[in-house]
């Protein structure tokens, strides 16, 4: 509770070009909890972290592997999400100069860059999946000593 947090005091224009120095950030005690008081539903994230860890413990004691894996995964994901929820919109706080801290909008690309990456991803990801599937199909099967010695025109 005594840890100082960062709070953005200026308006953030989410559609403007990124300029990390065009904002005002102050250090305040308890600022990391401001998102929880503004949006009480966010308290579910740290609660899920604790419940996931407890469920993983009992799943481990009961030797239920599926329950243990799922609940420990939920716990780890919720712990990481708790940090993000607590710090939002700040991604990387600066201990030297709070104004130099990076927010979500400072660290993102422009709309044009994101659109170009969307188009490129929509074209190339299916090609990569198709090629990987084809290679998997061609190379399917176990290689044993008899297959290597039969001289049937394969890579061996």
UniProtKB/TrEMBL annotation:
The chain crosses the membrane at residues 41-60, 72-92, 112-132. Pfam families: Cyt_bd_oxida_II. The keyword Membrane applies. Keywords: Cell membrane, Electron transport, Heme, Iron, Membrane, Metal-binding, Transmembrane, Transmembrane helix, Transport. It comes from the Bacteria. It is a multi-pass membrane protein. It is found in: Cell membrane. The keyword Nucleus does not apply. Belongs to the cytochrome ubiquinol oxidase subunit 2 family. This is Cytochrome d oxidase subunit CydB.
């Amino acid at each position: 509770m005594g840890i100082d947090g960062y709070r953005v005091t200026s308006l953030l224009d989410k559609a403007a070009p990124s300029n990390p120095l065009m904002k005002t950030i102050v250090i305040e005690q308890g600022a990391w909890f401001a998102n929880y008081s503004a949006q009480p539903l966010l308290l579910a994230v740290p609660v899920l972290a604790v419940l996931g860890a407890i469920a993983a413990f009992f799943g481990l004691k009961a030797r239920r592997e599926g329950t243990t894996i799922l609940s420990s995964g939920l716990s780890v994901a919720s712990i990481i999400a708790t940090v993000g929820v607590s710090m939002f919109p700040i991604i990387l706080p600066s201990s030297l100069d709070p104004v130099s801290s990076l927010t979500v909008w400072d660290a993102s690309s422009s709309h044009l860059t994101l659109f170009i990456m969307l188009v490129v991803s929509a074209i190339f990801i299916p090609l990569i999946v198709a090629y990987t599937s084809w290679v998997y199909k061609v190379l399917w099967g176990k290689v044993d000593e008899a297959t290597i010695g039969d001289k049937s025109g394969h890579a061996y």
